[in-house]
Amino acid sequence: MNSVLSQSYEDLELIVVDDASTEDIERVVRSVDDRRITYVRRLRNGGAAAARNTGLGHAKGDYIAFQDSDDLWLPGKLQKQLTLFSSIPSNVGAVTGAKIIYGRDNEQNYGPGRVAYAPIPEGRLRLGEDQLGHLLVENRISLQNALFRKNCIPDAEWFDVCAKANEDWEFAIRLAQHTSIYEDIEPVVLGFVSHDSISRNRRKETIGVLRILKKNKDVLQCRKKQRSLMLIDVGRYFHTVGKKRRMIRFLAAALKDYPLHVKLIGSILLGKLFKRRPRRPAT
């Protein structure tokens, strides 16, 4: 909360969504004397996507930003991104930046003392490119890093409540079908990886990828290289948990979609690739 309320851009509302927590979140929020704060408690726990949708339903401003309990906005985040909006084409509906993450490195190794810069600058989204195709391969949008125009997407609820992980990636794919995205490589957020972090739960991540495959069948039908990479990710997960039949099913579908991935699939079958591709997801 402090990293939001102390921003140099002060004309904001901070909506704190209590996702039916067993802790006394309301007492903590009420202890902060700031009229810009609105406290909202959900009756039932719905997860991150549902909490964000609830916050969206209460938002009154023209721009939307998100903050999680384990991240900190850097000073000047909002002002920097609002200034970017004023200097880029009006058809751009989202501006995103980078995050410095403590608790893991860029090779997805976790532990104390490890630091990552994500997403890595080399894969930067560029205006005028096929951003949808890019995002189908690699998620470049961590929600805490971004600022969105409220009308950037027509859906009243932005996030898929059935996706318990990778919901930001699924949202990014839909977002790119409605608007352009500007990516700045300067960091705007500090992130911290905890032991219970969703981003470390491979099973939930895989369920998230399966939701993306299901919800984007039409888009992926003509982008078989990207679909093949998603199927490979799912097959790799089943390889690591010892479910060989499911692994073979998904890897065979990936090879059918894009035969040139035969070497990548072969290396998985030989047991040489146990880590996911390091540049997905962004957080």
UniProtKB/TrEMBL annotation:
InterPro entries: Glyco_trans_2-like, Glycosyltransf_2, Nucleotide-diphossugar_trans. GO terms for molecular function: transferase activity. It holds the Pfam family Glycos_transf_2. PANTHER family: GLYCOSYLTRANSFERASE, GLYCOSYLTRANSFERASE TAGX-RELATED. It comes from the Bacteria. Signal peptide: none annotated. Residues 2-93 form the Glycosyltransferase 2-like domain. This is Glycosyltransferase involved in cell wall biosynthesis. Keywords: Transferase.
